[in-house]
Design goal:
Low-confidence stretches of chain A: none
CATH class of the largest domain in chain B: Alpha Beta
Shape of chain B: globular
Strand order of the largest sheet of chain A: 2-1-3-4-5
Oligomer: heterodimer
Mean pLDDT of chain B: 90
Strand content of chain B: 5-15%
Largest sheet of chain A: 5 strands, parallel
CATH topology of the largest domain in chain B: Rossmann fold
CATH topology of chain A: Rossmann fold
CATH architecture of chain A: 3-Layer(aba) Sandwich
Structural class of chain B: alpha/beta
Low-confidence stretches of chain B: none
Mean pLDDT of chain A: 94
Bound molecules: cobalamin, guanosine-5'-diphosphate, magnesium ion
CATH superfamily of the largest domain in chain B: P-loop containing nucleotide triphosphate hydrolases
Number of domains of chain B: 3
Number of helices of chain A: 5
Chain lengths: 144, 322
């Protein structure tokens, strides 16, 4: 399936603002590692611009934000905008944590492509990313 | 961003971080465009001061790298960092956490930090890392810092082939000096006792001084490795460490060591590539031999031992090469 032997999905996991809930993001990091992905963690207290710069430096395929402190509407659209500004708008932006259902549509319009709320099984997240990655590799091979 | 080799190479030479990041990825993954772009940027490499940092996990290497970046930036230099963390031997995945300690520099356009997993494929870690160093070097970073855990031989190669190899120790690991991997004591150009704020730093210092004294006696050299105390968390001692790094660089440049180091690194890369490509071709030639299939099944059946079978097959093709 892959064009060359050493192709591997890279994911940046980030925590924005004052949100210090770390359990969810740690669980996700380990699940993605065990699925064979390369995970880079930003640590806490990031700004949207810091995360966007980091995504560029690390050339990740996916940026995943964990948000549990009700600041998702403030940070996520800003991050999507910074990513576009810095030429990284083609990367997949996803999020998880405590996000009320009524906010999801608006976040999706702002460029967050998928949101996994509280209680999502990690397998669901891994499957989603694996499917997305397979489609990306297939698109690359057929003329991308 | 252009996705052709020429476009990315031009971006790298124009110092665009996005282009550099993409080229590192191509090289790491064996994308053929990577090789073409590397050929274009290659003449622009060989300038950066390459600093290798190694030591046991938890010694404070990432924190120290963060403090070194700050100090180098104060001195007006642009800094590239390659931070290596181990990949899982089971899944091949990794959680790369070094840069958590370096995010204070995330908004500084004069700093480019890249994390790498040890993956251990396609010619090994050292090639992927040296490739990444070449990219940052061509981007005009004055200093390139490589952080590794220093467990595998590959990682040892990386740090010991740097211009300046920094060995980080910390008090409180039990038999501290034993924790310095064999070979590293010889390879070290500078020694750091980090977490100098912790108890036991003095005892560790005395042990290290003794080891370095013995090294000096068995292998005298013009450079006496300095021993620097740092508290990476506060930045204490990091200016002194940077002074020593600058002094080491000046010594290397004056003595011809800088060029010699580069020569050795180039040769190392060439040999590893040669080995890999030669092995691949010889293997293909051996398997194409008419007798190969028969030999393989004889080995599987246990009719012939694998040593003799391998020798026979290599014998067949070596006739053709001679
Ligand atoms: C544990 C906990 C804490 C611990 C955190 C410890 C730590 N180191 O993480 C402590 C006690 C410190 C804490 C503090 C606070 N907390 Co609290 N906390 C919780 C609690 C009970 C569980 C969170 C948790 O760890 N869940 C387990 C993990 C595995 O689940 P998860 O994070 O949701 O992750 C899953 C998914 O969301 C998703 N996911 C998460 N991140 C990501 C990222 C990506 C990329 C993807 C794909 C998926 C994904 O996948 C995971 C697996 O399913 C929740 C309530 C709850 N039931 O969720 C409140 C909760 C999150 N906390 C809350 C609050 C208000 C606070 C405080 C402000 C309380 C206070 N007044 O002091 C502080 C704020 C701290 C801060 N600055 O951020 C509120 C948030 C309300 C909101 N968002 O509107 C909650 C919802 C409680 C409530 N019902 O009011 N908290
Ligand atoms: N007390 C103290 N702790 C430090 C110092 N330097 C680093 N640390 C802590 O040591 C831990 C490991 O540091 P890290 O840089 O990740 O180590 P690495 O694994 O060698 O890269 C972290 O909790 C740091 O905060 C120091 O000088 N003094
Ligand atoms: Mg580290």
């Amino acid at each position: 399936m892959t064009a060359f032997a050493n192709r591997r999905l890279r994911v940046l996991l980030a925590k924005l603002g004052m949100d210090t809930h770390t359990i969810g993001v740690t669980v996700i990091a380990h699940a993605l590692r065990d699925a064979g992905f390369e995970v880079i963690f930003t640590g806490l207290k990031q700004t949207a611009e810091m995360v966007a710069n980091t995504a560029v430096q690390e050339d990740v395929d996916v940026i995943g934000v964990s948000s549990l402190s009700a600041a998702h509407m403030k940070h996520l659209p800003k991050l999507a905008e910074f990513l576009r500004q810095k030429g990284a708008g083609d990367k997949l932006l996803i999020a998880g944590g405590v996000v009320p259902l009524e906010d999801i549509a608006q976040l999706e319009r702002a460029g967050v492509q998928k949101i996994f709320t509280m209680g999502t099984e990690t397998k669901v997240i891994v499957d989603y990313l694996q499917t997305w990655w397979a489609a990306k590799l297939a698109a690359e091979q057929s003329g991308g | 961003m252009s996705q052709t080799a020429a476009g990315i190479a031009a971006g790298v030479l124009a110092r665009e971080i996005g282009a550099g990041a993409r080229l590192i990825r191509w090289l790491e993954e064996g994308d053929p465009r990577g090789r073409d772009a590397l050929a274009t940027i290659y003449p622009h490499t060989g300038q950066a001061h390459l600093i290798g940092i190694t030591g046991p996990p938890g010694a404070g290497k990432s924190t120290l790298t963060n403090a070194l970046i700050s100090e180098q930036r104060k001195r007006g230099r642009r800094v590239g960092v390659i931070a290596v963390d181990p990949s899982s031997p089971f899944s091949g995945g990794a959680v790369l956490g070094d840069r958590v300690r370096m995010q204070t520099h995330a908004l500084d356009t004069g700093v480019f930090i890249r994390s790498m997993g040890t993956r251990g494929q396609l010619g090994g870690l050292s090639r992927a890392t040296f490739d990444a160093i070449l990219v940052q070097d061509a981007m005009g970073y004055d200093v390139v810092i490589v952080e590794t855990v220093g467990v595998g031989q590959d990682e040892l190669d990386i740090v010991s082939l740097a211009h300046s190899t920094v060995i980080v120790s910390v008090p409180g690991l039990g038999d501290e000096v034993q924790a310095i991997k064999a070979g590293l004591l010889e390879a070290g150009d500078l020694f750091v006792v980090n977490k100098a704020d912790r108890e036991g730093a003095d005892a560790l210092t005395r042990q290290l001084e003794l080891m370095l004294h013995l090294r000096e006696q068995t292998r005298p050299s013009d450079w006496t490795p300095p021993l620097v105390h740092t508290t990476a968390l506060t930045g204490q001692g990091v200016a002194t460490l940077t002074d020593e790094l600058d002094r080491h660089l000046a010594m290397l440049k004056a003595s011809g060591g800088f060029a010699a180091c580069l020569k050795e690194r180039n040769r190392h890369m060439f040999e590893s590539l040669l080995q890999e490509q030669a092995a691949r071709q010889i293997l293909a030639a051996a398997l194409a031999e008419p007798s190969a299939a028969q030999l393989i099944s004889a080995v599987e059946q246990g009719d012939i031992d694998p040593y003799s079978a391998a020798a026979q097959l290599v014998g067949c093709i070596s006739l053709k090469f001679s």
